[in-house]
Design goal:
Elements: E1 4-5, H1 9-20, H2 24-46, E2 61-66, E3 71-81, E4 90-92, H3 93-97, E5 108-112, H4 122-151, E6 155-164, E7 167-173, E8 180-185, E9 201-210, E10 218-222, H5 226-236, H6 238-241, E11 245-253, E12 264-271, H7 278-283, H8 288-296, E13 301-306, H9 311-318, E14 326-331, E15 336-341, H10 346-350, H11 355-364, E16 367-372, H12 378-414, H13 418-425
Parallel strand pairs: 3-4, 8-10, 12-13, 15-16
Antiparallel strand pairs: 1-3, 2-3, 3-5, 6-7, 6-9, 7-8, 9-10, 11-12, 14-15
Length: about 425
């Protein structure tokens, strides 16, 4: 088999690999694609004005790169046919059977179509060099894309670069040749208490990685995600890292609907160890651990509560710091609960503009109604709940009846009209 020599190929691959911080297989793949483009340029120059090459004409060609011999070959996969219409894509059955008698029509064979060393041409070499630069950049983008796809859902350090409309464009370090990759922090993912100055650094949650057509991966990061809170606690509390304490649920309102209400998070924790206080472990001695998290989130209020398998206890804990007198599970199937509190705890349980009860409901998954315990009428509430249940049951029955009637009508439509049949017989 013929070969086009490339003196110093092995050394060149090593140098490119080190310079661009790319693995050698990635460099070799980029070189194969570039050489194929060079061969395509060589072929087009050969048959200019005499033959039309469509976009997919060279799809059946490939480059066999031989690093040890420092050269390459061009291989073409051809289909065996009776009569050859295109010699680049087809080969006659008669010609193949001279070498392999068992060959049949429709089979494929791979042939060496490497041009002579001198024929490859200066223009083809220039084309190869230009394409190689582009392919190396493409390989770099691909590896960076894969790197950040693996990091999706984790927390990274980011530096503020500039501002575009309401978004903050940040830089995140990459391990592949490109020292920094740009990420977008949209307005909805920002914290109201953050001060985004040029070159200031923040911990961000990598929310999404999109494939960018020209500038590499497009990263979307967040400061408002609940995942950031989980990471900060896991990083600060060794018991979470060691899986002695687990985070069961998180409800976060980083951007409240009103500017008069600050960001707030409720986090439910639990442990299987009798001697471990999960809430105390997260708060730390004199609040040292939770204060680190609060500082990173620029003063965001954080309530750490104890998770419980008992819904009543869990709901009562979730309304912290308010003291709850009683939790009534008025509709367990619909996950509705009435929470009774003292008059002086009413505003605390509801929270400023309803934030506390709203977060407690999201944390527990229950619809929570806060009631004044002193004014709660058990009998009236019971009658109202029973009436609601009866109404729901009646609606369900009516729906079943309507479905049954509709089914009967459909059956009637499908049966023949007996009166019309009788008339036809008469």
């Amino acid at each position: 088999m013929s070969i086009v020599n490339l003196p110093g190929l092995k050394k060149m691959i090593e140098e490119i690999s080190q310079t661009h911080n790319l693995p050698k297989p990635a460099v070799q793949q980029a070189l194969r694609e570039a050489l194929l483009k060079g061969y395509e340029r060589y072929r087009r120059a050969q048959r200019m004005d005499r033959f039309h090459f469509d976009e997919n004409y060279f799809d059946n060609f490939e480059v066999d790169l031989d690093v040890e011999e420092e050269g390459f070959r061009i291989l073409s996969t051809k289909t065996i046919v009776e009569e050859v219409g295109n010699s680049d894509h087809h080969i006659s059955l008669k010609e193949v059977q001279e070498v392999a008698s068992e060959a049949q029509l429709g089979d494929s064979v791979i042939l060496d179509v490497t041009p002579d060393q001198g024929e490859f041409g200066r223009m083809a070499a220039i084309q190869t060099k230009q394409v190689l630069s582009q392919k190396l950049r493409d390989q770099q983008r691909k590896l960076i894309q894969e790197e950040f796809e693996e990091l999706e859902g984790t927390v990274l350090q980011a530096r503020v670069l500039r501002f575009e409309r309401q978004s903050v464009i940040m830089a995140i370090s990459s391990g592949f040749g490109q020292p920094e990759v740009e990420a977008e922090l949209p307005k909805r993912e920002q914290l109201p208490n953050d001060n985004y100055r040029i070159n200031s650094t923040f911990k961000v949650y990598l929310k999404k990685v999109r494939e960018g057509p020209h500038r590499g991966p497009q990263l979307v990061v967040s400061r408002a995600s609940a995942g950031l809170v989980v990471y900060l606690f896991a990083n600060e509390v060794p018991e979470i890292e060691d899986e002695v304490v687990r985070i069961v649920a998180v409800a976060r309102e980083a951007n409240p609907p009103s500017r008069h209400v600050g960001p707030r998070t409720k986090i439910a924790v639990d442990t299987l160890e009798r001697d471990v206080d999960p809430v105390g472990a997260c708060i730390g001695a004199r609040g040292s651990r939770i204060q680190v998290v609060v500082n990173e989130l620029r003063g965001e209020k954080i309530d750490v509560i104890r998770w419980s398998p008992d819904p009543s206890t869990y709901i009562a804990n979730a309304l912290s710091p308010a003291r709850v007198d009683q939790v009534l599970l008025v509709n367990p199937e619909g996950r509705q609960a009435h929470v009774l509190v003292a008059d002086d705890q009413l505003s605390l349980a509801i929270g400023k503009e309803g934030q506390n009860v709203r977060l407690a409901a999201r944390l527990t998954g229950w619809k929570i109604d806060i009631k004044d315990g002193a004014k709660y009428d058990y009998e009236a509430e019971h009658r109202q709940i029973e009436a609601m249940k009866a109404s729901a049951a009646a609606n369900e029955t009516d729906l079943e009846d309507e479905e049954g009637t509709l089914e009967m009508l459909n059956m009637a439509d499908s049966e023949p009209n007996l009166e019309d049949s009788d008339l036809e017989e008469e």
